[in-house]
Task: inverse folding
């Protein structure tokens, strides 16, 4: 295949986003025939179909969905760049690019990032949430200033960087009032056989929880696992199962989700890290985050 033609890729992206050739043509200021012809040519160059026609609609093929995923990243970043360069540079706050692993509770992420906006000259925060491996790949090519995660850099990724411990918190267990009322016995044995919502396999705390259950001879019934902590808590709020969260945000969890704490253990600890490509952190926002995290949010590091 010849070098990728970004004009054709852009036409394809516009058709996929607009939901049809006619609407894409209006946004591109081209006739539907021109857009359709360009898409057909692009498919010929690629050697496979990007769309299937279903009635009067165009639907992405499996290959089309893969191409669209990459095209969406490329042109979304391009639109973001266009917006930035269209603004006057004089007086504009410097950017602070931070990735947040989806295993980190959003309330923890906010409380970690909040000191950056309280600086005398606060930066413009560009926050990206996602899988740790994806965020670390972005960090490696300097597309992030730091990554906030629940674990240090995994050794198997082969990415050069430094993991700075922000703090740690024992975990607590929560349940809706109705579910808590059905539990029998003392904690933690009241969780034996009870429905449990587990964090996804990428969450560092999960394996520690499972080992602790085994040590306590407690066998909760797993009814679901979630990469997104907010979604996990939403299910917990509705009484689907018991769930765990860092004890440092216990009061906030109870208030926000209307649940009650049924017990806690210091034998399972959730840690939080700021990962950077620098051993010595110099960015003012990063220094503020680490200082406040260790002095106010978490206890025992300073």
Result:
């Amino acid at each position: 295949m010849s070098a990728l033609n970004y004009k054709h890729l852009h036409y394809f992206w516009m058709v996929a986003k607009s939901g049809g050739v006619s609407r894409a043509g209006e946004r591109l200021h081209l006739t539907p025939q021109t857009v359709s012809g360009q898409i057909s040519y692009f498919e010929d160059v690629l050697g496979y179909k990007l769309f299937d026609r279903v009635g009067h609609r165009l639907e992405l093929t499996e290959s089309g969905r893969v191409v669209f995923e990459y095209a969406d990243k490329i042109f979304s970043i391009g639109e973001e760049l266009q917006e930035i360069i269209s603004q006057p540079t004089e007086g504009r706050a410097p950017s602070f690019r931070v990735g947040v692993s989806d295993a980190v509770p959003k309330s923890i992420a906010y409380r970690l990032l909040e000191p950056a906006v309280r600086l005398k000259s606060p930066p413009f925060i560009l926050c990206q949430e996602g899988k740790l491996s994806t965020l670390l790949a972005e960090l490696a090519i300097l597309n992030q200033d730091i990554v906030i995660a629940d674990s240090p850099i995994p050794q198997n990724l082969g990415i050069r960087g430094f993991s700075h411990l922000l703090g740690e918190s024992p975990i607590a267990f929560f349940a809706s009032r109705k579910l808590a009322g059905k539990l029998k016995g003392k904690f933690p044995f009241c969780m034996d056989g009870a429905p449990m919502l587990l964090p996804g396999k990428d969450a560092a705390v999960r394996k520690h929880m499972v080992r602790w259950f085994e040590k306590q001879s407690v066998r909760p019934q797993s009814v679901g696992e979630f990469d997104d902590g907010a979604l996990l808590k939403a299910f917990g709020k509705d009484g689907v199962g018991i769930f765990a969260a860092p004890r440092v945000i216990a009061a906030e969890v109870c208030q926000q989700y209307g649940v009650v704490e049924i017990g806690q253990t210091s034998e399972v600890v959730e840690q939080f890290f700021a990962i950077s490509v620098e051993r010595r952190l110099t960015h003012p926002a990063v220094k503020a985050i680490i200082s406040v995290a260790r002095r106010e949010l978490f206890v025992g590091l300073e």
The chain has eleven helices and ten strands. The two ends are 58 Å apart (CA to CA).
